[in-house]
Amino acid sequence: MNDTSARHRVRSVAATLAVALTLTLAAAAGCDNRREPSLPSVRDKLRESHIDGQPKIKIGVATTEPLMGELRNGAHAGFDVEIARYVASYLGYEGDQRIEWVSVTTEDRIPALQGGLVDLVVSSFSITEEREKLVSFAGPYFVTTQEVMVPTRLKDKIRTIEDLREPAYKVCTSGGSTTEAELAKHDVKALVVKEVGDCVKGIREGRYDAVSSDETILAGFLSLYPTEFEIVDMPFGTSELLGIGVPIGDPALRDLVAFALQKSYLAGRNGISSPWLTAYNRTLGPWLKAEKAQPQPLNVPDLVDFDDKAPTR
Amino acid sequence: MTAPAVPQDLGATTVPVRDGWDPAVERRARASQSFWTAVVGVPAIFSVLRLGVEAGGELQTTLLLVANVGPVNLLAGFLTTAARLLSTGLVAVFALGAVLRVSVERMPPTVRRPLFVRWADLTPAWFVLASFLMAMVTWQLLYLPLLLPAFVAAFQLTPARLHEHLVLRALIVVMLLAGYGWLLAPTLVDAWQQRELLALVLFVTPPLLALAVTGPLPGAVIRPLASITEAAVLAMLVWAALPVITTPVLPLTVTTVESSPGVTEDVRGHVVTVDDVNMVLLQERGGVRYVPVDDVRAQVLCPSEEELPRHRLRVRDYHVEDSLLEGLGRRVRPVHRTDAACRTLH
Predict the structure, then answer these.
(1) pTM strictly above 0.80
(2) Which chain B residues touch A25 with a CB distance below 8 Å?
(3) From the CA atom positions of chain B, what is the Rg in Å?
């Protein structure tokens, strides 16, 4: 008898506790449901960035680098331009009527960002420690190597870096580029001009004998003159990580651009066609010797967006 | 109007003299009336209130909306946004009602039965079951485990009803819990790594609480619990009703308007109506705008800011903030891309 009533008592105490706890949990769930989201979202970052409210986004691109950034029939085209279009549309600027293209030369890229002439620079911009002191980078969105392109007549004579050092050969490169520094490191005397295109023109006119630059830029000129040139694979040590340049004072915009690149990277990794892959196949893909894939962007922030609830597989 | 009122009046005057008149029957009838009035009336009133809020409190704008939003659209729009709240209210009433009923039955018959018990008594079982089904498909997955103790309480499914043998009973409970654990294990690990303690507790404790939640409760608890929960459910309805009232009735769009050649402008707002001449837009910032149809260049549907997720957890690839219905929907149309124009903030 006593045993039963004790059991009854334990049961009612347990029931009371369970009911109380369930109600508390329900109340906690209700509060959680009304809480402001704690994770930063793409919209929050957009509000922080300086492009918030701008009717157009200003993007600095090259106009003289075939396959990367060029003017074709008056319209901007190339791999960098396609990537810029994708990033702009991610930021809310879809279509060329919302983008103000600003033509920047290799050496103008940093001053243009610093001076506020452009919001972004997508123009074969290699990420280096030196430059990171002056501008911010999102990316990399492409990894390339430094190569040398020679006219077909010299393809058997210039095969190594040693050959380049011979005073008989005049090597040309563009100013303010990483190539210029790399050549100096290898004791190669180079004639510095404004654009890689000037070097190519010079070679065709017989003024120079070789041009050194990123493989992507050289591939562009090779696509223009496939019979006249050849790219020689040389063991320059470093690989070039191409990034999107952002003003150093706008970390929110850098985060957004990195996040946009990450979206494309994840789509590509999951085997879905990504904006990067589309851009690559339409431009550089057919002209590069080795197959490339989008590199993983670095320092990508953790942001929430509206499509976060979509199924991942 | 007057015809049905007459027999009712007659009934009211004749009932006391009739033999076998039972005050309990009348009380039950009155409780039933109040219950169904609440179930039907609350959504109707809310729907109309929402229009006023949607219009930004402007009388003329409210009238414009009233003229253009049909009652069916209004009710359907209300149900899609408020189904969660409605089912929560009903589930809470039925679960508490059942627990209190089983406790009150042990008390002397003079004890007045609490309101929720009377409501639960009158409601047909199919309606209770339907409310739970609605809650199951509309509640966010994160809160869905709470439905388990509520269901067990509402239908008084004590472990004793599983099997008469104690050992077999324990075995069935352990197997059920193991199945639940297997289903949620990856999510629990994620929740622990992300230090989402509330999510962890919300997933782990409800099935354990379900074992003991059926009652009966000790006599001393019944009275305060009944009053507190009645007040709490009412407060919850009011508190949770606020976001429901402010949820828009019309879908959010961004319309690109070219008012003069070459000059385009994005208008963020809700389309009230379109006729041959104008598209009537209720702007997100307030105010109505009549845009000539010929000037409209593009229009996209946009998500609203409230739809941004708060958690980063998934249960078997279903986001914890999706209901089962939403989760299934996302499987039918898996790729969803937020249109660039929706990023326009102004």
Answers:
(1) no
(2) 146, 201-202, 205-206, 209
(3) 26
Q: How far apart are CA A99 and CA A81, in angstroms?
A: 11
What single DSSP character describes residue B323?
B
Nearest-neighbour CA in chain A from B297: distance (Å): 13
The first and second tokens of residue B116, run together, are: 């929720």
CA dist B108 and B114 (Å) reads 14
pLDDT tens digits for range B287-319: 888 999 988 888 888 887 777 888 888 888 888
End position of a domain, from candidates A232, A262, A286: A232
- Cα–Cα distance between A257 and B200 in angstroms, integer? 33
Domains of chain A: total: 2
CB contact under 8 A, A16 and B218: yes
Eight-class DSSP state of B16: G
Q: What are the helix and strand counts (H, E) for chain B?
A: 11, 7
Whole-angstrom Cα distance, residue A100 to residue A58? 5
Residue A110 lies in a domain: yes
Domain assignment present for residue A37? The answer is: no
Q: In sequence order, which ranges of A76-191 are alpha helices (DSSP H)?
A: 79-90, 109-114, 129-132, 161-165, 178-185
Handedness of CA B143, B149, B152, B153 (dihedral sign): negative
φ and ψ of B190, to 5 deg: -60, -45
List alpha helices for A91-214, DSSP H. Answer: 109-114, 129-132, 161-165, 178-185, 196-204
Q: Which residues of B touch A13 (CB under 8 A)?
A: 218
Q: Give residue-wise pLDDT tens across range B21-61.
A: 677 777 777 777 877 787 777 777 777 777 888 888 888 88
The answer to whether B61 touches B289, Cβ cutoff 8 Å, is no
- A123 and A262 housed in the same domain: yes
Q: Residue A190 and residue A172: Cα distance in Å, rounded?
A: 5
Closest CB to A312 among B214, B317, B344: B317
Residues A156 and A172 in one domain: yes
* Cis status, amide bond into B216, omega within 30 of 0: yes
User: Based on the domain organization, do A248 and A139 belong to the same domain?
Assistant: yes
Q: Are A52 and A137 found together in one domain?
A: yes
Tell me how far apart the alpha carbons of residues B161 and B15 are, in angstroms, rounded to a whole number. 43
Residues of A in Cβ contact (< 8 Å) with B205: 21, 25
